[in-house]
Design goal:
Blueprint: H1 2-24, H2 29-50, E1 66-67, E2 115-122, H3 134-149, E3 157-164, H4 170-179, E4 184-186, H5 197-202, E5 207-208, H6 215-218, E6 223-224
Parallel strand pairs: 2-3, 2-4, 4-5, 5-6
Antiparallel strand pairs: 1-3
Length: 235
Amino acid sequence: MREDNRVSGRFNRARARRVRLRAATPLVGAQRARRRLAISGLAVILVATVGCGRSDEEVEEGPSGREGPTAAPGASTTVPGGAAPGEFGDLGRVCGPSPDGAALEATDIGVTADSIQLGTVADPGFSGRPGLNQEVFDSAEAFTRWCNDAGGINGRSIELVKRDARLTEYQPRMIEACDEGDFMLVGGGGVFDDQGQGERLACGLPNLAGFVVNPPAVQSDLTMAPCSTARSRSG
């Protein structure tokens, strides 16, 4: 009971904080939505690097936590085809300095004058299978370094926060993402992703997942994913 009260208290504080920050920002809903859509374009690239599955033979082990512009050992941070820095295939330039050197300022939760905080969820800390979906974190690290080397997102560097759900701790990671001010969850996925959806939605945190597993997560608002392993449980 004491632990439940502690978790509930953290969640309520996180939700109140996001409400206060949104009330303080001068941007109206349509403007905020357009900015989130702009970040979503970059998220698609990150999601594409993760893919929709992995071989059962691939088990890697690695750290989790907060990362700046670093990459996993051996991970490629270049785009094939001789593209210029910040350009990605037919999408053209997706990362780079601020347009015309415009002055930047804090505009939203997780968005400061010089950085954007993005969270990524995976389960590599699960003791039953260390390294589970470690490639999710590796891909996020590689993209973060590639984008930051090109100038960031319109001049703001990406601050990546790796949130290790350890298979059974998806809900606490959602509460932390709200409490610690993630702008968006990008490119991740968790085995028990049906947990914590209420907390995530209550604080208005979008999730552009690399994959989604369970029907409640698939059907949840503010969620987009290129693929899903969920199956209907009706009938």
